Amino acid sequence: MKVLNKNKLPAVFDKLAQQSELFVPLQKKEQSGFYSWKSFDQASDQLALDLLNVYLPPKQVLLPQTEKMYSFRQEEGGVAISEVYEESQARVIFGIRACDLQAINCLDQAFLTRGFVDEFYKARRDNTTIVASACYKPGANCFCSSMGVNPLEPAGADAIIRDTGTEYFIWEARTPAGEELSRQLAEFLEEKELPLPQSQAFERQVDMEGVAEKLSQVFSSPLWEELSDACQTCGICTYLCPSCYCFDIQVKNQGEAGYRFRCWDSCMYGEYTMMAGGHNPRASATERFRNRFLHKLEFFSERYGMPLCTGCGRCIIACPAGIDISKIITAAKEANWSA
Amino acid sequence: MHNCNCENPLVPQIVEIVKIIDETPDVKTFHVRNENGVPFDVKPGQLAMVSLLPVGEGMFSVSWQEEKEHLQFAIRRVGLMTDELHSVGVGHKIGVRGPYGNGFPVEACQGKDMLFIAGGIGLAPLRSFIKYCLKHRSDYGKIQVLYGARSYADICFKDELFELWPKEKDTEVFTTLDRPEEGWNGHVGLIPSYLEELNPAPEGKVAVICGPPIMIKFALKSLEKMGYNDEQVITTLEMRMKCGIGKCGRCNIGSEYICLDGPVFNLAQLRKLPPEW
After folding, report:
1. Fewer CB atoms inside 10 A, N or C side of chain B?
2. Do B10 and A302 touch (CB under 8 A)?
3. By the CB < 8 Å criterion, does A254 face chain B?
4. Contacts of A288 in chain B (CB under 8 A)
5. Cis before residue A25, ω within 30 degrees of 0?
6. Hey, which residues 151-210 in chain A have their CB within 8 Å of chain B?
7. Is residue A312 within 8 Å of A189, Cβ to Cβ?
8. Stretch A129-144: mean pLDDT, rounded?
9. Does B248 fall in a domain?
10. For the segment B226-247, what is each residue's pLDDT rounded down to a tens digit?
11. Using CB atoms, which residue from B14, B54, B260 is nearest to A80?
12. Which of B38, B67, B100 is the last residue of a domain?
């Protein structure tokens, strides 16, 4: 088997970063997330390949928090589109976990299927190569295996690394793009036989069987009031969620010119569905809370055949009110919704 | 300059406003085209995103496509972008992208008697279907239009409602105002009660409704009471939209997106969705 010595990672990253924008998990002071390797500061940053889970998911690699869509210029008697920004520069995400990769599979469904293709997303996605890290030791808030994710075989990876607990990662190319990475990294890869790591059990588990069907029957239940009571609609769950993709489109003017951009939005905010004129179909926190969890656990499954939660556990850690999606899933099956 | 006849569905095409009609104190109809005519073909009931590039974008129903010549948008002044749009004149360049949404089932309705029920600016989307039926007059049976507005001044498309449509073969227009008004000799009262008063028989008929959500909800109840079944009743919904292509998230009702799977639903489809509109 091919193996990669961990000591060579900085050199591997330097090499990959020559041809691509490389994103790796980094601990940057109190913050952790997927950052460009170019931003790595030896003095204050640490590589965080073994951290579960880095706080900021890698979704911004494919769906930046803000992105310019097109610019325009106002001219004598009119306006013209001057430039459309579709970013097709090569990207590599290195060290993504199966949960976050499944979230990208969800984004692929939302942005690339059902009639229209989102060209801004596609330009990035088509030029992104993914090296996933197989997960053998789930974190305390992880429950990906309950959400149909196999942490040992990240679906959609071009290549997979497996931490053997020694100084080596096992390296497996899975697609032609992954083979191409193997060729690029040939000087760093060695042939060596190593035992596969032992996988550990999940502390947190839920049973998703029948949850979407059950939730489809309880839309009008008063239990949503109780479940959402603590929610402050701060939106941190949507911000940190690797699969939350809702966006807003806004404009920035600079004199006679300007550009339209899109940015992450959150279904937890009242303005999200507020129409000009004042009508708001989801005016209350409870309605927004219900819509978010139903989108995650019912609506997305109905539309695309997979839940929009991948069990990464970030929202459980971050929610200031202690709202726990795994408990909502359990409640879907066990709570008394007719009360 | 970028050629904006591009494949990217989120990038608008530039069109010129060639005519503006003052419908009511807060509704204007804008006719737009580019040098070749319509920027794209639109089916009755479909939507398009209209933008004043430096200000904002909003989703509007296309209230008529005049051959290959121009698109018409009847737009009420209610917010930031529409307020600004109402201040521009003929010759102004704006952005449009589309068409979006499913549109009305014009073919499936052939051979039926048509009952259109609209409140306020809700006539804008239905107008495309009404005009389509009149253009293909022999494909449809009797046409009835029931329209309600807050006041006489708030009645949209007065020419068509009072002059043109009533002259068409086998076509009736019923107009009502919410409150009595000096000089108004027509019906006074809300749409659902007028509808029940007129009591058009459901046999062989399709009812198409658009208006404020509260009016739609009550009119649906009236139709149900009058014996219309769920497949006979069609409505067109609106939600806040940003992308128009089923990606940005906000216009969902359950797992359906109004911009993509709607905006037109029959009552049977609507009943399967959460009551969140």
Report:
1. N
2. no
3. no
4. none
5. no
6. none
7. no
8. 96
9. no
10. 999 999 999 999 999 999 999 9
11. B14
12. B100
Do B2 and A249 count as a contact with CB atoms less than 8 A apart? no
pLDDT tens digit string along A292-302? 999 999 999 99
Contact criterion met (CB < 8 Å) for A79 and B95: yes
The answer on B209 and B132 residing in a single domain is yes
Alpha helix segments (H runs only) across A135-268: 176-184, 211-215, 223-228, 236-240
Q: Using alpha carbons only, how large is chain A's radius of gyration in Å?
A: 22
Is residue B231 assigned to a domain?
yes
A295 neighbourhood in chain B, CB within 8 Å: 249, 252
Assess B261–A contact: CB distance below 8 Å, yes or no.
Answer: no
Q: Which residues 229-248 of chain A have a CB within 8 Å of chain B?
A: 245-248
Same domain, B52 and B88: yes
Distance CA A181, CA A158 (A): 9
pLDDT in tens, B81-101: 999 999 999 999 999 999 999
Check if the interface score ipTM surpasses 0.85: yes
Q: Which domain holds residue B228?
A: 113-236
Q: Do B53 and A72 touch (CB under 8 A)?
A: yes
Contact yes or no for B247 and A245 at CB 8 A: yes
Distance from CA of A218 to the nearest CA of B (A): 10
- Within-domain flag for B254: no
Provide mean pLDDT across the span B63-74: 98
- Taking CB atoms and an 8 Å cutoff, what residues of chain A touch B243? 118, 247, 249
Q: Please determine, for residue B1, whether its predicted confidence score (pLDDT) is greater than 80.
A: no
Distance between CA B187 and CA B194 in Å, rounded?
8
pLDDT over 50 (residue B4): no
Confidence of residue A173 (pLDDT cuts 50, 70, 90): very high
Angle at alpha carbon of residue A107, lines to A102 and A113, rounded to 5°? 120
Q: Tell me if chain A has a CB within 8 Å of the CB of B108.
A: no
Interface of B with A in 157-186 (CB under 8 A): none
Distance of CA A298 to the CA centre of its chain: 19
- Terminal Cα distance for chain A, rounded: 58
Token pair 């296309």 is found at B62
Tell me, yes or no, if B79 comes closer than 8 A to chain A by beta carbon: yes
Q: How many inter-chain contacts (A to B, CB under 8 Å) are there?
A: 144
Give the CATH number for residue B23: 2.40.30.10
CATH number where B231 lies: 3.40.50.80
Pinpoint the alpha helices (H) of A39-97. 59-62
* B95 and B117, same domain (yes or no): no
Indicate the helix (H) or strand (E) that contains B177.
strand B171-177
Beta strands in chain A (DSSP E): 2-5, 21-28, 31-36, 45-47, 66-75, 78-84, 91-96, 128-133, 159-163, 168-173, 189-191, 247-254, 257-264
Q: Which chain B residue has its CA at the smallest distance from A256's CA? A: B54
Count of domains for chain B: 2
Q: Which residues of A touch B16 (CB under 8 A)?
A: 78
Residue type, B205: K
A 10 A CB-CB count for A287 gives: 18
